[in-house]
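Weekly puzzle thread! Below is a chain. First person to post its structure in token form gets bragging rights.
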Amino acid sequence: MKVVLLAGGTGGAMLAEGLYQVLPPESLTVITNTADDLELWGLAISPDTDSVLYRLAGVFNEEAGWGVAGETFAMLGMLKRYGEEPWFGLGDRDLATHLLRTSLLRSGLGSAEATAELVRRLGIQARVMPMSEQPVRTKVTTPKGRLDLQEYFVREGHRLAVSAVEIEGTDQARPSPGVVEALAEADRIIIGPSNPAISIEPILAVAGASIDPARTLAVTPIVAGAALKGPTVEILLGLGREATPTGVARGYRAFASVFALDRRDAAEEEAIRALGYRVLVLDTVMGGPEGRRRLAAELLTGDPPADGPSPQR
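Winning reply:
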């Protein structure tokens, strides 16, 4: 079975790890969001892509929730001595990824080739593809003005209210080499449990036309009124959108025909079925490695009925 996962940073990267463990590794392709990429001190940084890389390579920093395990921050300390005020936490080990990526890009490689080289050097057998090689950037409107996503998320600690999200560059962006082919060849496409507005919708804006809804399953990023991590609920509410599994399902209906709903929200199953979905009712909270493998396996083997309520699991 060939599987393509659309992934943002936290929930999507966790599910990528689970799928990598239960599938033949070479049958998995992860398409990553690049709309929150940034450049700092001349370095090309791809936070969502790197979260996927580090999880698949087994070096993710679980304690911090980002970056590389065993991280140190001597470089940032030296920057502060030079009078800089670094707000983005580049660790010393994480820095190696950004240095190498930047070097590969400057040597003439596109971002898809550069990412493939990072994948190879980390010993990852799955494919990881940035959604586009053209720059796409997410901007959010806050009480402090219009900010780049990382300024909002990291520098401001995602504490500001968000009243608008704009994805710039999608009119010029094309799917990265290999993305359209991977989607066409996939037996199953999974929209990961990442923030719809800032992690998944940028991918859909670039590659959505190549997604076959009949082969696509979307996983809820909201469980019992809360997100796995981060401000998903707050952002959706700030945008005037319904911050529930049903609201998320409504937004994905043009791209998916199956929706994985958490059993804590089973009361919403009928409303989601009324949108035209088949529904899987599962425990979608992954927790540790075993939970990631469990959810991945259930998403791959689940067969929701065409009619009638889904069985509780």
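Puzzle host: Confirmed. Bonus trivia for everyone else. The chain is about 35% helix and 20% strand.
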